[in-house]
């Protein structure tokens, strides 16, 4: 018999309270009771999973899903789902967990908003990015099985996991994607990269030819495929690792350290998108083509905004080397360039050192100018105040 709204047993009421406190052990004990239904509904139609997602309790969500919680229960009085509550919490790891559990991204609430639209409405843009970049593992696993008359799968099973990690990344910086390739020795092989690239091209084509066309996902698959092809070329030319490719992507011109090769590579990758009539391609070209190389917006910034909904390198919180968001380490000399860790700083130093002192001098000059303006403004205010006191004394 399906649970009814508000008809909770005493144990189920206790479970809701335990969830609020975040005590996973007590919750596990209660879920083992026959008196507790994992999909029970409170008076508003909220399940324990919805409560956990809304409160940002990651371990609790995992426990409830293990006990068979329905990720797509839609009995809430306003049509909210667990994925929507996860978006409201702002916890992108819980959003990812809901998606992996099969959450429906197209479900709408009583005002017609999807989970992604709700996340955007309340400013949880990281959650929007996670939803927009999610690609179910089973869709990739399709290529690990022989299809049609072919006796061999297009993608070896051992490559599915590493490739899925790359596909679902929300950081599209080419250096970051190469980092992900380097993390797994299985991918540091020409044939492996070729197979992965071929599968990405097939997914790209499928996205464009299916009934519900997905230009954003198609562009992302094509772009990652271009990076994998570039890695293949480097390995083919006798390199046993991808460090030279990373250096070429990071190398900046002498005048301002702008990474010209990286900019040209991203522009060329976009230009090679095989579906010329795609609206997204035309939008990208219109945004990038008139911009002189070295000026804003960069190709990476435009591409990132189109695919993830976030603007790359607009604020100083992105790593200069790999584009990772949340970088909190500054160059100790110029204090203007940001990195996510010491490794990224070391990788970038070979090119940054050419302009580091110049940036430092520029920063100090700007600071001195600001101090002079503030001092001048203070004197003006003081003089006005003195005149005002004199006038009052008359």
TrEMBL record:
It is found in: Cell projection, Cilium. ANK repeats lie at residues 44-76, 78-110. Its main location: other. Residues 319-356 form the MYND-type domain. Residues 372-394 are annotated as: Disordered. It holds the Pfam family Ank_2. Keywords: ANK repeat, Cell projection, Cilium, Metal-binding, Repeat, Zinc, Zinc-finger. SMART domains: ANK. InterPro entries: Ankyrin-MYND_dom_contain_2 (IPR052452), Ankyrin_rpt (IPR002110), Ankyrin_rpt-contain_sf (IPR036770), Znf_MYND (IPR002893). This is MYND-type domain-containing protein. It comes from Staurois parvus.
């Amino acid at each position: 018999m399906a649970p009814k709204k508000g008809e909770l047993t005493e144990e189920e009421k206790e479970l809701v309270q335990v969830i609020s406190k975040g005590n996973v052990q007590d919750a596990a004990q209660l879920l083992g009771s026959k008196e507790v239904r994992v999909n029970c509904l409170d008076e508003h139609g909220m399940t324990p999973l919805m409560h956990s997602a809304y409160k940002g309790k990651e371990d609790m969500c995992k426990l409830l899903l293990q006990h068979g919680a329905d990720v797509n229960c839609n009995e809430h009085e306003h049509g909210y789902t667990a994925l929507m509550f996860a978006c409201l919490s702002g916890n992108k790891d819980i959003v990812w967990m809901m998606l992996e559990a099969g959450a429906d991204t197209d479900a709408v609430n009583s005002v017609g908003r999807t989970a992604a639209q709700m996340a955007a409405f309340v400013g949880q843009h990281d959650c929007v990015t996670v939803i927009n970049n999610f690609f179910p593992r089973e869709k990739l696993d399709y290529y690990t099985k022989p299809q049609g008359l072919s006796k061999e799968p297009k993608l070896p099973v051992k490559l599915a996991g590493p490739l899925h990690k790359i596909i679902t990344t929300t950081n599209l910086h080419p250096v970051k994607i190469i980092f992900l390739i380097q993390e797994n020795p299985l991918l540091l092989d020409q044939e492996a990269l070729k197979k992965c690239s071929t599968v990405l091209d097939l997914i790209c084509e499928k996205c464009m030819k299916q009934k519900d066309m997905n230009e954003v996902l198609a562009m992302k698959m094509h772009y990652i495929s271009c990076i994998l092809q570039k890695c293949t070329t480097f390995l083919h030319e006798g390199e046993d690792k991808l460090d030279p490719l990373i250096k070429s992507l990071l190398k900046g011109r002498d005048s301002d350290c702008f990474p010209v090769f990286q900019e040209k590579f991203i522009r060329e990758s976009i230009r090679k998108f095989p579906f010329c009539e795609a609206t997204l391609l035309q939008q990208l070209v219109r945004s990038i083509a008139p911009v002189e190389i070295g000026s804003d917006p960069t190709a990476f910034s435009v591409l990132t905004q189109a695919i993830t909904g976030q603007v790359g390198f607009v604020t100083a919180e992105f790593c200069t080397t790999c584009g990772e968001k949340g970088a909190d380490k500054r160059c100790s000399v110029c204090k203007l360039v940001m990195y996510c860790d010491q490794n990224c700083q070391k990788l970038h130093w070979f090119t940054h050192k050419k302009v580091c002192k110049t940036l430092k001098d520029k920063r100090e000059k700007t600071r001195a100018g600001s101090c002079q303006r503030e001092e001048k403004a203070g004197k003006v205010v003081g003089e006005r105040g003195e005149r005002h006191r004199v006038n009052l004394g008359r």
